[in-house]
Amino acid sequence: MKKWKTLLALILMAIAIYLNWSWFWALFILLGLIHVIKSGEIHFVEAVSKIETPKLYWFMVLIWSFLALYSMWSYLT
Question: Can you give the pTM of this predicted structure?
Answer without folding.
Answer: 0.75
